[in-house]
Design brief:
147 residues
C-alpha cells in the first residue's frame, strides 16, 4: 500500500513538472539574441523588466490575499474554540417519573385515565396462601413416600 502511494506521488510530481515546463514554454518563448543590435537588446531588456514588475505585483497581491485569509481563518478558529469553552454540558441525572407523568408528557392534556398498576393485580387473601402452601407440602410428602 505504501509502495503504491509512493508511485502515485512520483507520478503526480512528474505531471506537475511537465505542466510547469509546458506553461513556461508557452509564456516565454526562447529569444534569439545573436542577431540583435545594442538598441534592440536594451528595448528587449526594458520589456522584460516591465513584465517582471507586473508579475511581481501580481505575486505580491496574491500573497497579501493569502496572508489575510490565513489570519481570518485563525481568528475564526479562535472564536470557535472560545464558544466551545463557554458552554459546559450539564451532567445528566437520573429522574424518577411516574407512568402518569410519562403518559401526560406523551399524550398531553388528552390523558385523563390514571394508570394504577397495583389496581390491576389480583388480590390474594392470607388464608388462601396458607392452604396452597400446605397443599404443596402434602404433595411433596406423597411423592417422597412413593419413591
Amino acid at each position: 500500500m505504501v509502495a503504491t502511494a509512493m508511485e502515485e506521488l512520483e507520478q503526480e510530481m512528474e505531471e506537475k513538472e511537465e505542466q510547469k515546463s509546458k506553461y513556461l514554454d508557452e509564456k516565454s518563448p526562447p529569444i534569439q539574441i545573436c542577431s540583435m543590435s545594442l538598441d534592440e537588446l536594451q528595448t528587449l531588456c526594458e520589456e522584460l523588466h516591465g513584465k517582471v514588475d507586473v508579475v511581481d505585483e501580481e505575486r505580491y497581491d496574491i500573497q497579501a490575499k493569502v496572508s489575510h485569509n490565513t489570519r481570518e481563518i485563525k481568528d475564526l478558529n479562535i472564536k470557535v474554540l472560545d464558544l466551545r469553552g463557554k458552554f459546559k454540558r450539564p451532567s445528566l441525572r437520573r429522574v424518577r417519573v411516574s407512568a402518569d407523568a410519562i403518559l401526560r408528557s406523551l399524550l398531553g392534556s388528552k390523558h385523563k385515565v390514571s394508570l394504577d398498576l397495583r389496581a390491576n393485580l389480583k388480590s390474594v387473601k392470607k388464608e388462601d396462601t396458607e392452604k396452597v402452601s400446605l397443599g404443596n407440602k402434602y404433595k411433596d410428602m406423597e411423592m417422597l413416600s412413593a419413591k
